[in-house]
Amino acid sequence: MTRQGTTYDESMSLVGPRRSRRKRAALIVGAVVVLTTGFYLPMTLLAPIAPVTAEDRTPAASSTRLPADLTWPGTQASAIGSPDFPDLQQSSGTTDQRPMASITKVITTLVVLSVKPLAVGEQGPSITFSASDVAMYSKYLAEDGAVQPVSVGESLSQLQVNQVMLIASANNYAESYATWAFGSEARFLTAARAWLTANGLTHTTIADTCGMNAGSTSTASDLVALGKLALANPVVAGIVSTQRLSVPGVGNLHNSNDLLGVAGVDGIKTGTLENVGSNLLFSTVFQFGSRKVTVIGVILGSVNKTTLYASVTALLGSVWNGFHDVTLSTAGQEFASYSTPWNSTSQAVASKDESVLVWADTPISTTVAAKPMALAKAGTAAGSVTFTVGKSTIVVPLDLKQPLSDPGALWRLSNPFQLVG
Questions:
Q1: pTM above 0.70?
Q2: Which CATH number goes with the domain that contains 101?
Q3: CB burial class (10 A; 0-12, 13-18, 19+) of residue 299?
Q4: CATH code, domain with 365
Q5: Residue that terminates a domain, selected from 321, 352, 381
Q6: Are residues 339 and 377 in the same domain?
Q7: For the chain, what is the radius of gyration of the CA atoms?
Q8: Helix, strand, or coil here: 6?
Q9: Hey, CA dihedral for 300, 305, 307, 313, is it positive or negative?
Q10: 185 touches 206 (CB < 8 A)
């Protein structure tokens, strides 16, 4: 087509736009390449990987649950317990309060020591006896109670008075000791009742200092708790485990507890009362490998000491048989497992062997707390496993058994959404 004064070629009209589009396309491609190279590739190849959650592999409980089969005596009341094993708390017979007899002297000792404490190795202040103390001796002697000699002007240390009272079970020394500390038996009894309440011995009643009054009563369970308090005081624990002792002015003392040293018995106090029977608050220490277990028990109302001592040894033997070891973990034992999307696997395993001494059918439960993991070396801390054994807990650390390795560039580039930005 020809216009006047102008020559126009239609084919040339498309050249400019085509070149422009190609140029823009090339720029876009270049930008994509630049972005991919400068942003996407580093982000995918170097970005952290989202951690995976462990799957719990807790094994079945390994405890052989053995019911307690204790040899209880056919007496008024009995109980057994341990400061080391809260789950070992068993009783038999009546739960009513029974006369304590001379076990009452343990309360007298602890109440006096609560206001006039003694440390191991201390003798304490001197206690000088008067005519009223001699009168106490005569009173208890007339009642056919256990006594030890005393004279006006005689002085003994506080520790020695405790020893005469607990080892020889001297009733007159118990009242003299309480009167020395509180001024009178009545004031002592007021303090003793407050002490019993403060220590949770709410099923114990005290009516005198020595237990000759049948109104001084307690339950078997309360007396086990009293035994724990006695052994927690090292001065008292040392006295009640002493078989023989010589005290100047008094003479040679022989412990009224003839079971000391038999079957490991190391305390605590006898108590005999006419028409009530023979009582014994006792303790022993069992040795299981490197583990020591203190056991405290009481038998109330046995017909005589011979029967009483036979009952104690039989009961302690059955308690011994109730303990057994349970393996909680072995080093390398699996408690959780990991499986990654790129098919790398590993396990959370126990870092050490762990076992526990349990009493009878004490329940055992296991709780695994394994950490989420992504990339990690073998041996990395992987959480813990907690064993609840009765009322106590044992924690064993967990380690990663095999490494969780990087999945590699191909997996990273093809799985960008499993990366942490």
A1: yes
A2: 3.40.710.10
A3: buried
A4: 2.60.410.10
A5: 321
A6: yes
A7: 40
A8: strand
A9: positive
A10: no
* Residue entry with tokens 């079957």: 263
Mean of all residue pLDDT scores within the chain: 89
The letter for the amino acid at 69 is: D
Q: What is the largest CA-CA distance in the chain?
A: 160
How far CA 115 is from CA of 110, 112, 189, in Å, comes to: 9, 6, 14
Q: Judge if 261 and 347 occupy the same domain.
A: no
Pairing of strands 345-350, 334-339: antiparallel
Q: Where are the beta strands (DSSP E) in 196-290?
A: 217-218, 244-247, 251-254, 265-273, 277-288
pLDDT in tens, 393-407: 999 999 999 999 888
What tokens appear for 121 in the block? 């190795």
The percent of residues above 70 in pLDDT, for the chain, comes to: 86
Phi/psi at 418 (5° precision)? -100, 15
- Residues 123 and 96 both lie in one domain: yes
Q: What is the distance between the alpha carbons of residues 40 and 4, in angstroms, rounded to a whole number? A: 59
Query: How many Cβ atoms sit within 10 Å of the Cβ of residue 390?
Result: 18
Residue 302 structure tokens: 């046995």
Which of 321, 341, 369 marks a domain boundary? 321
